[in-house]
Amino acid sequence: xxxxxxxxxxxxxxxxxxxxxxxxxxxxxxxxxxxxxxxxxxxxxxxxxxxxxxxxxxxxxxxxxxxxxxxxxxxxxxxxxxxxxxxxxxxxxxxxxxxxxxxxxxxxxxxxxxxxxxxxxxxxxxxxxxxxxxxxxxxxxxxxxxxxxxxxxxxxxxxxxxxxxxxxxxxxxxxxxxxxxxxxxxxxxxxxxxxxxxxxxxxxxxxxxxxxxxxxxxxxxxxxxxxxxxxxxxxxxxxxxxxxxxxxxxxxxxxxxxxxxxxxxxxxxxxxxxxxxxxxxxxxxxxxxxxxxxxxxxxxxxxxxxxxx
Length: 309
Ligand code: NAP
Hints:
By secondary structure, the protein is α/β, with parallel strands linked by helices. The protein has two domains: 2-89 and 277-295, NAD(P)-binding Rossmann-like Domain (Rossmann fold, 3-Layer(aba) Sandwich); 91-269, 3-Layer(aba) Sandwich (Rossmann fold), CATH 3.40.50. The protein is 30% helix and 17% strand. It has nine helices and twelve strands. The two termini are 31 Å apart. Bound molecules: NADP nicotinamide-adenine-dinucleotide phosphate. NADP nicotinamide-adenine-dinucleotide phosphate is lined by residues 70-71, 89, 93, 97, 140-145, 162-165, 194-198, 200-201, 222-224, 248-249, 272, 274-275, 309.
C-alpha cells in the first residue's frame, strides 16, 4: 500500500480527489490517499507551495514531493525538504498558457483596443502590419516558452527566445546568457516573460533592459511579478517609451485594490489566470511519477536545487 498525502490548499482536494484516484488506479497502483496521515507513514506528498505543510522534517519515509505548480520559488529553498522535488509540467497548463499568450499578443499586434474602446463614430482605418513584420521575444524558453514560441512562429511572428543555456530551436533565433539579453530585447516589439523566479532572474527587467527595447514595445509578464522592477516599469511607461504592459503576476497577490497598476491607463492586470494546472491532465503526471518511484525509475520534471527551477 502506497500512502499519498494530499497537501495542497484544502479547496483543491474537491477538485483533485476524483481525477487523482482515477489516474492512480489507471497506473495500477495500490494506494491510500488522504489529506492527513502520521508523517512517518507518508510515501509521497502531492503538494502546492501555499499548503499549511512547510516543515518536511517529520516525513522521514517520504520518497518524493510532487508539486502541482510549475513555479517552485516558494519551496525550492526550504531546508527541511531533503527528498526529491518534482515540479508540474502539465499539457493542460501548457496549452492554456499558449492560448493566453497568443491572445494577448494578438490584442497588441492588431491594435484591438482602438476598436473595442473606440466606438465613437470615427472611421479608424489604420492597418496593422502582418505578423511577419512584428518581432517577438520570449524570455524563458522552457516548457511554456517553447510552446508559445511554436504557436507564434506558426502565425509567422519572427520569434527570438532567450534562455540560460544555449539552444538550437528550428525557426527561432535562440540567444542565451546575460551577455545576450539586451540583444534579444533591442528589436522586440512584444516581449513575453516566461522565466522562473530565481536569485538570478529577480529584477531582470530593470531600467537598463527596458531602455534597450524599441519605443512603443509591449511587455507581457506571465512568469512571476518580481522578474520586473515595478518602479522602473512605471517610469518607462510614463516616459512613453514602453507602449503597454500586460501583467498576470505580481509581487503581492492578490494585487492590493489600491495598487497603482489597477488604474494605470497603459497597464492591463489579469489576476494570475494565464494558465492553471488542470486536474485531469496533471493527475496523470502525478500518477506516472509515483509509478516511476515505485518501479525504481527516474522521476520526471525534477527540480534542480542549485539553479532553483
Ligand atoms: P521551465 O521549463 O523551467 O523553463 C524556464 C526557462 O527559463 C528555461 O528556458 C531556462 O533556461 C530559463 N531561465 C531560467 N533561469 C534563467 C536565467 N538566469 N537566464 C536566462 N534564462 C533563464 O519553466 P516553465 O514550465 O516554462 O515555466 C516558466 C515559469 O512560468 C514558471 O516558473 C512559473 O513561474 C511561470 N508560470 C506562470 C503561470 C501563470 O499562470 N502566470 C502558469 C505556469 C507557470 P534553460 O532552458 O537554459 O534552463
